[in-house]
Amino acid sequence: MEEKKTHSIFKKVKELTREDKILWKEEADGSTFYTSVSDFKIYIGKSVGTVSFELFNHHNEKIGLLEEGGYFENTQGLDAFYEQVRKKVLKIDDGLDDLLNQLERLD
Length: 107
Fold this sequence. Notes:
The protein has helices at 2-18, 78-90, 92-105; strands at residues 25-26, 32-37, 40-47, 50-56, 62-69, 72-73. By secondary structure, it is an alpha+beta fold.
């Protein structure tokens, strides 16, 4: 039951992120991103080929976990969502656009 609810939350978070209704921030390690919804925290991170999606309550207790990669395969699309969040937070598309504009000016 817990995993089913965590999957439902994951789907909703993906949808709200795509609609720019959830904003993510970068952790100091550079490979973990987080957001808050009320008193809850949501983390997505990548380490040693495994992507983790973790949910914490207002007591900072882990209440949900999905992992993909390594030995875990209990969700599809977690790695792609991680990349989406990473690109959004780091503004990778904006940087690529800026670089392309700079290169075009050199012509």
